Structure formats: C-alpha cells, structure tokens
C-alpha cells in the first residue's frame, strides 16, 4: 500500500533566515511570476503565506523551463535550497521576505485558466455576483481568507470560554415543528406523513429552555437558524447564533458572563479599542429618548433632545401641527455646523424626507450669536432662546428639528444622527462601543393585528412586582430582557424566562391565542413547566454580525463562506432549482397549477 | 436595576469535608426524601451531583415544615451549614458523601407533578416513546445526562485537536442544491422562486472540496447531514459527522491524522482498551474473504474460510448445486462446539435461513475424532479431511458451511460469525478493535440500473496506474479510499479525491450520466477543477455512532439530545405536522388532491 506521497516539507509561511542552507519542498499557487535578468522569480502562495522562488537556468534548466510555462494560479510543487535574498531585495512586508528558494525541481500539479478576477490584489473592486459564483476563487483573496480564519478563531474562543465555565454544547434538531408565531418558517415536506411538514428552526429557543428543565444547567450551541423573510438590508436566509441558556440565574449573571466573553474575544482577535470596559446598562426609555433607537451607536454623543413642551410657545405651523396631532418635536445639535450652506442643509433635509419626515427645521447660530431660522418669524426671542438652551446650542452650531409622530421623529433623527457623525468625522473606526439596553416593556400593542404582542419573545420573564399589571396595565409590565449593542448594531439579546405554566399561559392569552391554539403550539412547554422547571435565562448572539464588526466588513456576506444573495439564491451551486416530478410525488405535493412552468 | 439574585453559592457536586463549618446555598431537584427519627433527609440533585440535606425541626421549624411538603423533582433552594455526617452514615458512592447540609432555610422554587417514569433510578426500563415524549425528563436520568456530557467532551476534544493541527472550522450552508445522486434529499420549497427547491445536504462533500480549491488547506466541520431514507436499523433523518478535508495529502496523511485523533479521544474519555494502537490496514478483498463484510468486528477472530475448490470432491448435492450456479462454499470453525445438541445446531440453521441461506451444513468433530456430518455420506474421507484441514478443525469443534452465491455466503456467515462470538463469549465489552479497510474497487456494476456506480462517492480518486483501466476494465480500478471500522461498525470513510476535470467527467460518464446532466449537476465542480485545484483528500466520521460506542449504548438515539423515532417523528414537539393553507400558497404548493386529508 504505497501511498506515502509527500507534497511539501514546509508551508509557504514558515521559512526564514534560520532555515538557510536547508532543502525545502513547498506546494502552492503561483501568486506572481516575474522574469528578470534571465531568471524567473515566482511568488508561491498558500493559506499561510508567500515564499519567493528563483528559477535559475544554470542551477536547474528543467525548473527554468517549467517556470516559463507558469501562469497565475497554477498549482505547483517546488524543491530547492533556502538561501538569503540579495541585500536590498528583501521584502519586509512578508514574514518570509528575507529568504528565497533556489529551485532544483519544479512540477506543475494542476494548471489554471485565467481567473475571472485578480486573486493576489484584493483591492480591485469585483462585482459581488461574480464573487459569489466563483466563491472558491474569491475565498483565495487575502481579506476573505483572513475573514475565514478570524471566524474560526472567534468561534473556537467562544467554545473554549464557555467550556471552561461549565457549559455543555448540545445539538438541537434542524427538522423541527412549524410555529406560525414570529417570522416565516422554511418548511420541509414529510414523505412518510402525507401533507405534513417539518420546519427549520428560527432559533432553538424552546429546546434550550427544555434542556434547562432537563437539569443540564448550562447549555450553549453555535446554532444555525433560518428565516424565510424578504432579504431587506443585510440578512441571510440562514444565519448562525451563539445560543446559550443557564439555570438558577438572574439577568446580571447572563450579562456578566457575556461581557467577559465579548471583551475576551475582542482583545484576543483584534487591535480594536473597547470604549468602556464595563458596558453601560441603559434603559430602553433612556436610549429611545436620547438616540431615537434601541440600538444606538455610542462611539459618539450627538444626543437627541425633545422640545415638545417648548414647541408651542409661538405660532410656528410645523410645530403646532405636530402638537395638534399628539406628536413630538425633537432636535439635534450639530456642533460647528452653523455655517453650513443652504445646499448642505437642503441635502440633510432631503435625507430626512427620504426617511419619512415632512422636512427639517433648521436653526443656525452664527459666530456672532445671531440666529438664522424660519422659527424666528413665528416665535418670540425668549421662546427660541429656551429651545437653544435646551439643546445647549453655542455660536457656530446648527440645530435641526423634526416635528411629527414620536415614531417618525425617532426614526428620522436616529439615522440623521449617524449621518451627521460620519459627516463630522466623529466616528473612530478602531473603536467598539458596547452597551446593554434593559428595562424593555414586555408587550407592545400591535395595531394591525389588534392584539398585544411580545416585544421580544413570548417566553421573556417579567419583574415579579409587575405580574399583577398583566391584567390592569399590560403595556407597563417591565420584562427581564437585555439587548447587547455594538456600534449601533444589536449583536444579541436575551432574557430571564417564565418558568411557571400559568404565567406563560397568561402571556399567550394576552397575545389573543385561545386555549386550543396554546395547547396545539406550546402544550409541550406548558407541560414541561409542571415538572420542576428551574428559574433560567439566556441569550443569543449573532455570530455573523459580530464577526463582521471585528473584521471591519460592511456586509455579513463577507464573513460567511458560502452566502446567498439578497434574494436567497446560491449562485455557486445554483440553488434553489427545479426538482424531478418523482421527488414531488414522493412528497405528496404538486406545484399549484397556475404557477407551474 | 436590582437584578442581583443569587440562587446558589455551590453546586450539588462540590462540597466535602474541607467546607465543614461554612454556610452554603444550593439549588436543585429533590432526588429523594426520607423521614427518619423526626428528621427529614433530602437528596438534592443537580447536573454536578447530589448533596444530602437534613431538616431538623429544632434547628429550623420552617425548613422542616417546607420539607414535609416536598415530593420528588420539586425544585428547591436550601441554605444551611456544612456539617460532617454521623460516623457510619457516610455514602462512599457520592463525592459529597462525607458531609450534609443542616438546613436553616428551605424554599420551593417550583413544584413538580409526579413524573411518568422514575428519574433517580435509571435501571428501570421505560418505553422509548414515553422517554421521547418527555425527553426533558429522560435527560435528567443519570445515564442520559452522562451521555450528553460525554458528547460535549468528545466534540470539544475533536475541535481542540484539529485546531492545534491548523484546521479551520468553516460552516457550509444547510439550504443547498438537490442532487438526484445518492440517497433521497429532504427538500425545502422556495417562496421566491416558484416551483423551485433547496435541498438539505447529505454531506458537505462538494463544498469541502471547493474549500480546498479556495486554498484554505485544512478544513473541518461538525456538520449536520440529512437523508430522507426509510429508517431501517439505527438511523436518524439528521445526523452529525466530523467532516474534514486536507490539501496536498496522500491517503496516509489523512489516516495518520485520524488515527491520532481517535486514539486521543478514546484515551481521554473512556477506560476502554484499544486492541491495536496501530490500526491494522486491511484490504477490501482480505476482509471480504475472511469476515464476509467490509466492516468486520475484530475483537475476536473466528475467520471464514472458503472451500469452493474442495466442495466438488464428492457428490454432495448442496455443494454441487452451488458450484453449478457459479456460487461459493464457505465455512466457519466454531471451537469447542462439537458437542452442540441437534437443537442448538438447528437454532443456528434457523438463524442462517432468516438471513437468506437455504440452510447450514454442519460437521461436528467429536472428542474421539469421529466426524458427524451429512457430508460424510456423499464425500470420501479424504475429501472431508481436506475440508477439515482447510478450516483447521480439531476434535471438539463444530464446522458450519453455507453453499450459495458469494453474496449470500458472505452476508450469512458475517452475521453468523458475530452471533457465534456472542454465544461463545469471545467479545470483550471493554475493548475497542479498530482497523482501516483500504484497496476498495472504485466502481461496482449496478445490475438493476444497468450502469456502473461509485463504490463510495463519485469524487474518490484512483491509483494513477489504474486510470487507463477506466476504459478497459473499470471494475478493477482501485480507489484511493479508506474506511475506518470499530467493533464491526463503519465509523468513517474517506478518500483522496479527483482534482482533474477530465477525469471527474470520465467517472460521471461511466455512471451513465450524459454531458447535459453532468453540466447541470456538477458543472460548478468541473469548472472549479480548471482553476488550480490542489491535490486533496478527506474523511467523514459518524459522530453519533462513535459516541454510542464510547458510551456503551445500543442505539444512537441515546446519545442525541432530541432524536426522532424510527419513523422520523419528533414525539416531544409533535413534528411533522400540518401547516396553514396560507403557508402552502406562499410556497406555490398544494397537497396532491388524492392525498389531501
């Protein structure tokens, strides 16, 4: 059984001056070839680095002959002697930059066609659909390779950390039960049970809670989750989360654990600076007031300031109308922007309109202290000054206001705040600003469906002293819920859960489920809670998003090996695709006649 | 934000004599309650152990009152002082058996109904469907809890080992493309692309090869795989494999790596003995000849011996008929079984018939040397003796023969061999006998489909010197394939792959695929091979099966947290289940009218 074949004795990233004089065999891809002074220089690349090879016709005519045939991305094997480069030709950017291989033997292991985009230089912009179709080439590019390595390291560190803390990683099924609650499920038809379906899990929420009922105490999983949603923004049909649950804990236990984990991950895998090592814990009300969102970017301040109480002082129609409609007036101070041109202010106004505002009210405080604003015609100086004072406006500042419903004010100013920070260059790209948002309401009222709905998920627990409010004042029940935010992205969220069947039933009832529906969909959970369910809580962290932030990427697709397009298509494998009618028949299905192609 | 609640200061597994005199708070389940001499003794259980609590009405009347209410599986919190147990009442079976807690405070955190089966005593046999319906209770039982812990440890050790060896764990998609090759796919209808489907992966085979083309060099994944097959034997619709691929390797590199991994896992997680630390590498032909199977149990010898060439010597009809049909005669020596009663031999014969044999020919060598066999009437003594000699029969032995097609002979004798080993008590339950099977044929001929088919998968490479045989003698092309066997189970298999487009195309052609089909199904692979595909190979190990062997379980369901039944049903969640017609409409599907319920 003679299958001892040795392709290499070293990788392309490990040779240096210490190895000079040794024979080495490398295998890898031709990153670059240069012909110079009768010699051929090859940069051979693998995952670990790049090593320069010199093919000298006097040393090995055969190697030189083979080298002359080589083109980029050919796979080669080369043997030769490690030698120092000539003084002045070292490459300080390469770990192997002091040495080169004097080739004695060179073999083409596999040729390559010309790649559809360059591999060695990944600053060239490439159309994303081309990158996805040829993902196996895209992943050769240094940045993508580094993203895959970073992802491996982060996930490995998560596992190490949680293992040390006594957590068990437990796999939960992918073939699950469909629950009409929440987002849309991906369904999987059953062949054995005609007309019945499995669903892919949106998260292992119920099973991780059942693992706590099972007494397993500390569970986690790097879990694949699925949502068949329209892929607005930067979403994927399947995504990965760190899913975690603990027994006999309060909110503080879960938050402390995660804080330690996240800090450790950042410190071990990046050079980024964490703004506050003890993550601020901010109430939902505070962040909605101050930032207009429950996932604020805290790398910069630029707070929003409500002036609803001051806005009725004069006779300014824009403000008056908002007040008449039970609305809100809210502003933001843009430091040093008092001198923005009319065009610049108009651009910002256009941006606000795109986001749904009717417009922006501007107030520029000139260096002289003079105020320029449409407001001054309709409001006495004292009223205007009260507003300026409230926003702490100083000479040279620009104040911008939105008058509308609270929702529109917040939605618009939240995004305007970020846009202004970019414009004012207030954002340090090397900083990570993390915080917790807590004190969420348990429920909100869904006007469309005419019922209460869980703010996060129906399993979240609530403050004990608020339980009685479920009947009297359900919108003012505070949940034991916490979200973790990084640079304006919600990277995770969790809660201490309900573990009492009657209370869980009550929450489902508030969501307008009748007893029949509750039993059909969640009967197993309610039953489990009757067999000694311990107090428990947990969290889920979005792995793709978190790694995107660590890798300084703009899209989660750049940290996923084989992502789908925004329209859920796999361009490499060409999925989804039609299937045989035989397959459909076995599944007791047919395409609806009007849609059959 | 007052959410600092401390449920416990210790787990139920950590207190011992060193802690005597300290106050401790524990939380857990009531494992057992005993009332004795006016005191109430509680065994409180969590994942980590059991601690005894004594409720003395003189020390804490309230705790004693609460304790009197307690029943099994109530969740409680208890505070008290760690004290030594009275001499003579220590429990050496518990790590905490020297101490107990003198209760000062006892709180019921959650009561429990009477469980449908006992938790604290897991030797009670329980109907499996009941266990699966109440899996959250089944997992509380000590053996199941230990299986989950073992599984976590094994998988963590795999990751640690491969990380140290430079492997990257890379996630591949679950929403893939359907390929009619191989087993039946689970399909997932697309909402966006009417009439099109994703498929759940049977393995990440193609993507891991593409990761090698991407230059990532060493990949692994603990990968979920799916097969919609009838669940004969001990299979699950979804299962987990260690999926692994390496670049620039020969068969030996992969096998050595896996051998090191498997030995390390066994040594770190069990007390089992590995029969041979350097796993024997046996050829496919050798194991088929000697054991009648390509996954032999090597904990015992009991070889099969072919006597086809000797079987025609006399005029024994059973042998003659097999020979006339181009069949085989093969036997096994059962040491010391020469004195088996007619009834015992008849039982073995019945067993062979169940497996498809027409019968068994027996030959008993009595202590005296006298031979008792139907054979003696039809074959000269010399002929009989030649057969006895071939099997190395000794006085006191029983020889058993099957005369049939090679397939039937092997299928029957393979299982008969295992049954005999059990009967003769030749199997050491504490031993793990591992081996590699190599030198597989690349292809076999599928009589039913009238075409060649890959013995393992169509991506397996072949001996370079055999490539030309693809045209002349395809059945004699040797694959670069290796299977790893443990105690008669195939726990893994892999190969060095094809990395040349033309050769891969040739193999698909031999499997009767036309150019159109090849392009449609595997075009992306063939194209990838044209862009510098390195030599590569890998393996997949069945995690469920391997952990089952380590845990001494009989079924993989006992090492999976939430398995499905043999008929692919989830009894806990009740999946699969019917879905709303709205969901089906969104997927452009309807149930076939004749099947609609």
UniProtKB/TrEMBL annotation, chains A, B:
Chain residues that bind L-aspartate: 181, 227, 456, 497
Is ATP-binding among the key words of this record? yes
Task: Extract the PROSITE patterns matched here.
Answer: AA_TRNA_LIGASE_II (PS50862)
User: Which one Pfam family would you cite for this protein?
Assistant: tRNA-synt_2
Its GO CC terms are: cytoplasm
The function of this protein is: Aspartyl-tRNA synthetase with relaxed tRNA specificity since it is able to aspartylate not only its cognate tRNA(Asp) but also tRNA(Asn). Reaction proceeds in two steps: L-aspartate is first activated by ATP to form Asp-AMP and then transferred to the acceptor end of tRNA(Asp/Asn).
Keyword terms = Aminoacyl-tRNA synthetase, ATP-binding, Cytoplasm, Ligase, Nucleotide-binding, Protein biosynthesis
Sites annotated Important for tRNA non-discrimination: 36, 88
SUPFAM superfamilies named among the record's database cross-references? Class II aaRS and biotin synthetases (SSF55681), GAD domain-like (SSF55261), Nucleic acid-binding proteins (SSF50249)
Catalytic activity annotation: tRNA(Asx) + L-aspartate + ATP = L-aspartyl-tRNA(Asx) + AMP + diphosphate
Record flagged with keyword Hydrolase = no
In which family does this protein belong, per the annotation? Belongs to the class-II aminoacyl-tRNA synthetase family. Type 1 subfamily.
**Protein name (record):** Aspartate--tRNA(Asp/Asn) ligase
Q: Which residues bind ATP?
A: 227-229, 236, 490, 542-545
Q: Which organism is it from?
A: Ktedonosporobacter rubrisoli
């Amino acid at each position: 059984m003679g299958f001892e074949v040795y392709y290499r004795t070293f990788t392309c990233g490990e040779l240096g001056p210490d190895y000079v004089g040794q024979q080495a065999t490398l295998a890898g891809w031709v990153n670059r070839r240069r012909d110079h002074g009768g010699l051929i220089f090859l940069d051979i690349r693998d995952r670990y680095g790049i090593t320069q090879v010199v093919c000298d016709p006097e040393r090995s005519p055969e190697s030189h002959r083979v080298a002359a045939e080589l083109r980029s991305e050919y796979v080669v094997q080369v043997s030769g002697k490690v030698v120092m480069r000539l003084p002045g030709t070292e490459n300080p950017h390469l770990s192997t930059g002091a040495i080169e291989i004097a080739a004695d033997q060179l073999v083409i292991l596999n040729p390559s066609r010309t790649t559809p985009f360059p591999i060695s230089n990944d600053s060239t912009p490439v159309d994303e659909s081309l990158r996805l179709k040829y993902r196996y080439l895209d992943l050769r590019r240094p940045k993508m390779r580094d993203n895959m390595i970073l992802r491996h390291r982060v996930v490995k560190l998560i596992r190490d950390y949680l293992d040390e803390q006594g957590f068990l990683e437990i796999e939960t099924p992918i073939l699950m039960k469909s629950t009409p609650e929440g987002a849309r499920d991906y369904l999987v038809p059953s062949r054995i049970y005609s007309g019945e379906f499995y669903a892919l899990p949106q998260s292992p929420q119920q099973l991780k809670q059942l693992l706590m009922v099972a007494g397993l105490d500390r569970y986690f999983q790097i879990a694949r989750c699925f949502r068949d949603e329209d892929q607005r923004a930067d979403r994927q049909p399947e995504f990965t989360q760190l899913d975690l649950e603990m027994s006999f804990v309060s909110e503080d236990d879960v938050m402390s654990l995660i804080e330690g984990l996240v800090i450790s991950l950042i410190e071990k895998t990046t050079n980024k600076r964490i703004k506050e090592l003890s993550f601020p814990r901010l109430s939902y009300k505070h962040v909605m007031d101050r930032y207009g969102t429950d996932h604020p970017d805290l790398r910069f301040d630029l707070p929003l300031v409500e002036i609803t109480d001051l806005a009725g002082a004069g006779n300014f129609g824009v403000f008056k109308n908002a007040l008449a409609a039970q609305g809100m007036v809210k502003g933001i101070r843009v430091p040093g922007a008092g001198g923005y041109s009319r065009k610049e202010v108009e651009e910002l106004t256009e941006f606000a309109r795109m986001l749904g505002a009717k417009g922006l009210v501007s107030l520029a405080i000139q260096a002289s202290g003079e105020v320029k604003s449409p407001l001054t015609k309709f409001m006495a100086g004292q009223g205007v000054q009260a507003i300026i004072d409230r926003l702490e406006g100083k000479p040279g500042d620009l104040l911008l206001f939105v008058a509308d419903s609270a929702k529109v004010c917040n939605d618009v100013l939240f995004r305007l705040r970020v846009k202004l920070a970019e414009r004012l260059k207030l954002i340090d790209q090397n900083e990570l600003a993390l915080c917790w948002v807590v004190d969420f309401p348990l429920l909100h009222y869904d006007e469309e469906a005419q019922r209460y709905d869980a703010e996060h998920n129906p399993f979240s627990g609530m403050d004990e002293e608020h339980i009685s409010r479920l009947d009297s004042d359900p919108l003012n029940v505070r949940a034991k819920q916490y979200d973790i935010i990084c640079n304006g992205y919600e990277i995770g969220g969790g809660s201490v859960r309900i573990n009492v069947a009657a209370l869980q039933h009550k929450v489902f009832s508030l969501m307008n489920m009748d007893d029949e529906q509750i039993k059909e969909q969640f009967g197993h959970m309610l039953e489990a809670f009757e067999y000694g369910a311990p107090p428990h809580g947990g969290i889920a962290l979005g792995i793709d998003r978190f790694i995107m932030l660590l890798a300084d990427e703009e899209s989660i697709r750049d940290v996923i090996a084989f992502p789908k397009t925004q329209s859920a298509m796999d361009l490499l494998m060409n999925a989804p695709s039609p299937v045989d009618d035989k397959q459909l028949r076995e599944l007791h299905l047919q395409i609806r006649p009007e849609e059959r192609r």
